[in-house]
Amino acid sequence: MATPPVRQWGVTPPISTVLPTPDELAANDDLVSELKLQNNFESPTETEQRKIALQLIQRVTVEFVKVVSRKKGLSPAAVEAAGGKIFTYGSYRLGVYGPGSDIDTLIVGPKHVIIDDFFSDFPPVLERMAPQGAIEKMTPVPDAYVPIIKLELSGISIDLIFARLIVPSVPLNLDLKNNDYLRGLDEREVRSLNGTRVTDEILELVPQQKTFRLALRAIKLWAQRRAIYSNIVGFPGGVAWAMLVARVCQLYPQATGSVIVGKFFRIMNKWAWPQPVLLKPIEDGPLQMKVWNPKIYHGDRFHLMPIITPAYPSMCATHNVSMSTKTVILRELQRGGDIVDKIFLKQNTWNDLFARHSFFTADYKYYLSITASSRTKEAEAVWSGLVESKIRHLVGALDRKSTIAVSHPFPKGFERVHIVNSEEETEAVKNGSTKYQDKGQKTETTDEINDAAHQAAADSQIEKRDVAETVENKANGENRIIYTTTYYIGLELKPLEPGQSRSLDISTDAQIFKSTCTSWPGYQPGINDLAITHVRNFDLPEDVFQPGETRPQRPKKKIIKKPGAGQKRSIESLDPPVELVVRHLRCTSATEARSFKATKLLDDFAVENAVREDVYQLVDAVWQKREELDLDPESQRLLNNKQGFLKNGLTLSLGPDRVAFKEIQVRLRKAQNEFQRSITEEGGGICFTLDELQGVPEDVLSDLHRRTESFVSPFSKSISFLR
């Protein structure tokens, strides 16, 4: 009897279809036990509470659609038939949620219900239908990249997004798999729908969902513990890790979850990047939508670790990955593979795989500290989210430095509250000092707070919000509260030849980064600020370390003999000296104003000297006798300044004409001052896109400096305008 053909899952045949061995089954049981010890599963009671919350959201959705339908004059029959349905996606839909996880929820309505209706009518309907006290918090963010309502309902965190379909009604048996449902939708609506469509496709494309879920739980926990879980700063996010695990499941359709985890590390570490990871062939749909294709789209060719979503229109879920974050990911994959190999040899345990990262304790000597600060808590939530979304651009710029091997962004920001009572203390806090931190306020990381406004701004699409200074800041008299969020980038420098030293100047890159952030429409001078400082590992704040972790120590001074002298001198270490230059990064508006005022005074003084009649008469008298005088070179140089007096009109008689020369000098000086000030505020240059430079001769382009994906004209800064 012929053996039935083995089903092919994915774009290639399986590597192995061998059934699990007893040892592999035992390792699988051990993995489940360890995940339970790690509190990765929630209790049945909590799961039941989630189901109850979603049932309420479904009832509210149907009523919300009815309310909008009545407002828009639909007939009673059409109102009753309009329907409305919720779909979950993300970790809840995949079945890998744990205690405290959000439920990502999509609300789908018919064609006459639009996004504005969702924000105006859904909240009041929910408040009316929810049990008293069930709604603990509700935050609408309509101007986010994907408009969202963040909700705390009976202890359950729910993220609600909305999309409409171009259909008259949405029945409960609706399936979103049909691509035709995307017809007539704008890009934002397609993004909202595709979260659910991608999640459903992933589940359909894995051989064993139970195995997939166990392996994905392990990989997600590992990625979070190793600090490589954040799409915003350049690491894979939840959907990307899910697709990688799903691909390994396709290659080993009969394997246990424990085996999938081990194969995951080895396969993805040896993957021929940038060859894309696909769960199925890329689909060309019937609609005019952009589908990931490096043969057509120039930008797609630069994706370093492309992981492609299976639902039409396919997109790259890892377009933010940089050279450095790719290096960090591959190192962690190697480490994970080595540990799992030893687990199967009974030399390690699963607990070793989930050990906390050593980003602050051992990985780097040098760090960049990026501190976003604001006068109010509300303003800081938005501002820090925007800054976080731009960090990957700074990482990309650092990757191009010849002396930097790795620039590793930490995926979480540290939110602190400070109390200051002087401008000096304010400046210290804005530059990253924790000396004035409010000891009564615990430092929290951005993922712990899960603020809606922060996340919306991190999408870098939120519009400007007017955030007034709070009463709290005014009521403290002399005291002022400053809110800060600090992000860290670990720097690994390339090795040098013996005796070689280096100077790493990142001031221009940092200034461009600051200019990018402050050009955002939501930036508010006087409310928001941004500073970048260099920090050694032994100077890191105490709150970045967990209890029990060993902090790096300042190197002990070593005494060595000076060659040939028999004398001793002290040095901190025998490592090659490193000078990290981080200048021009920030100054206060007050300092900047003083700088411009000083420049104006100097300019006025220079103009007055240039038109002094008495000085001109002395110079002219010597000029007339210059042939008779034996002048030294310096005196001759000063005498040649007569030409400057002539240009200033001093040969003219006193009157309107001579006054006009002085006025021209003043206007020229002012124009130069304003021009230099504008260039400084633009980060030391003017940026042009490649499209804007089309047709510019090559010899001109060769004089421009390449910065990221644009060119910068090389205007220099005056020292009086250092930022």
UniProtKB/TrEMBL annotation:
Main location (coarse class): nucleus
Disulfide bond recorded as keyword: no
GO process annotations (BP): mRNA processing; RNA 3'-end processing
GO molecular function annotation: ATP binding; metal ion binding; poly(A) RNA polymerase activity; RNA binding
Segments for region (Disordered): 543-569
Keyword terms, alphabetized: ATP-binding, Magnesium, Manganese, Metal-binding, mRNA processing, Nucleotide-binding, Nucleotidyltransferase, Nucleus, RNA-binding, Transferase
Location in or out of the cell: Nucleus
E.C. designation(s): 2.7.7.19
Residues covered by the Poly(A) polymerase nucleotidyltransferase domain: 10-206
Family: Belongs to the poly(A) polymerase family.
Protein name stated in the entry: polynucleotide adenylyltransferase
Gene this chain is encoded by: PAP1
